[in-house]
Structure formats: C-alpha cells, structure tokens
Amino acid sequence: MTKKIGIGKAHSKIILMGEHSVVYGFPAIALPLKDIEVTCLIQEAKEKLQFDFYDTLSTAIYSALDFLQIKDKPISYEIISQVPQKRGMGSSAAVSIAAIRAVFDYFDQPINDALLEVLVNKAEIIAHTNPSGLDAKTCLSDHAITFIRNVGFESLTINLDAYLVIADTGIHGHTREAVDKVAKFEESNLPHLTCLGQLTEEVYRAIISKDREAMGRAMTQAHQELKAIGVSIEQSDLLVQEALAHQALGAKMSGGGLGGCIIALAATAKDADTICEKLLEKGAVNTWIQKL
C-alpha cells in the first residue's frame, strides 16, 4: 500500500519599489515570482510534531491543524524550496502557504485563498509580530500587488514586454535592523523616503503607460535614495553598477536591505541573459529572470 502524501506548493515574491518608504505611508509594489517555488510534503509519522512558535513553518502547520481541529494525528513534513531564506523573496510566507496547503491536502479538506491568507497571516504574526501581509498576499497572487499601509492592497496587471533579473548577493538581508536604522535618523531620512514614495508612484504610472525607460530610470534613482538612508551594502551597489553597465534599463536593491537581492530591468531576453552572466561573474550566487 502506498503511503499517503499531502502536497502543497507556493511561489516566491520580490519587492519592485517602495521598500522602507512603505513604513511611512507611501505605496509599495511587489511582484509574484511564479517560477520560483516551494513544495511541502506531509506524511504520517510515528511521533507527534513538536511546535516551535518562533518558527513560521511550525506555526503554519499548527494553525492548519488547529483550524481543522486535528490533535492526535502524528505527521511529518518535508520542504523542497527554490527560495533562498532571508533575501526578501518571501521565503517565510511561501513556506507557510505550501505547508498549510499540504496539511489540508493530506486530510482531504478543501481550502480557498481567503482562508489560506488568514491562516498564513496568523502564523506570520506569531513568528514575526507585525507583518504587513504583503508577502502572503503576493505569494498567493498571480498579479503584482500595490500596498499602502492602513489603506490596503490592490492588484496590478503588468504587461511591459520586458524582463526582470533578480540576483542574490549571497548575503542575508537584515530587515529589522535596516528598519530600525532608518527610524533612528527619521528626520534626516524623510526627504529620501518622500523621494522613494514619489519614485514608486512614477514606476506605477510607467507600468500603466508601458514606459520601460521611465520605469528603469526611477528604479536606478530609488537605489541611490536607498543607499542614502544606509540600507544598501557594497555587494548590492557593485551588482547594480554591473547591471547598468550591461544594458539594464534600471537597477536597484530590493527588500529590507543590508544584504538580500538586487533587481534589474532588461528590454530583451538576450539582455537579461547577459546581465545574469555578468552578475554571476561579479559574485552573485544565483540569478532568476521573470517576464514582465
């Protein structure tokens, strides 16, 4: 008899624009990365799971079992992930989504996205105290998402005939430390944060009007503003410069900063391939290409 396996999948995400300024009431734009996936497998086990409520995965499985009112069924889990941790790519939210889907699948229970989002956010709140919900929303979406704090989320369709290169610096991002650093010098950082907010709005308008060049320029300017508030690192700056030196229409760091990823906008698939190649030569540990 074959062993029963519950399977759940989820995709990754990346912040296009608005990191840090989003904390101060400006918009952010996030993109789903549908080809970069996490899979969770749930199987029967001999012993009950021990839950660690500082760990999002553990908390997500607990949330799913708690909702289904299942207490005495020992299960084990396995995660197969293409999403690097602590790089601003939504690893935590994607793992939670995949795990909850796998638990529901294992127990033959249906789950819709609305319930899934509630359970994921519950897990994220326990593990991360005060998440915006943007990661979960984007990892559940097939479309880009715009977000304004205390206002909410909106879906954004992107059809630019362009390519986004994502490159991993290989260095863990430190979002909490970066947010604290920006807040500590809030007064002197406010002009840069305001500029970041305006640049996000420029990118939004460029997406609507399909103006790749304007979008690229705003992205590059945003990197300078993020650098000015002290959340970029030398390796991110180096990769941004390298992308711009090889036909990128624009490039910037992405996410909380002090590590993580950079993103670059390319007009053609060939340019995107070249940019990937050059970034790997300059020390990026991995690259991905997303059609926009």
TrEMBL record:
Which Pfam families does the UniProt entry name for this protein?
GHMP_kinases_C, GHMP_kinases_N
Q: What is its EC number?
A: 2.7.1.36
Q: In which pathway does it act?
A: Isoprenoid biosynthesis; isopentenyl diphosphate biosynthesis via mevalonate pathway; isopentenyl diphosphate from (R)-mevalonate: step 1/3
Question: Which GO BP terms sit in this record?
Answer: isopentenyl diphosphate biosynthetic process, mevalonate pathway
Q: Which Gene3D superfamilies match?
A: 3.30.230.10, GHMP kinase, C-terminal domain
Q: Which residues form the GHMP kinase C-terminal domain?
A: 205-283
Alphabetized UniProt keyword annotations: ATP-binding, Cytoplasm, Kinase, Lipid biosynthesis, Lipid metabolism, Magnesium, Nucleotide-binding, Transferase
Q: Name one GO cellular component term.
A: cytosol
Q: Name one GO molecular function term.
A: mevalonate kinase activity
Domain GHMP kinase N-terminal residues, every copy: 62-137
Q: NCBIfam families, from UniProt?
A: mevalon_kin
Q: What is this protein called?
A: Mevalonate kinase
Species source reads Streptococcus pseudoporcinus LQ 940-04
Taxonomy, top ranks, is: Bacteria, Bacillati, Bacillota, Bacilli, Lactobacillales
Coding gene? mvk
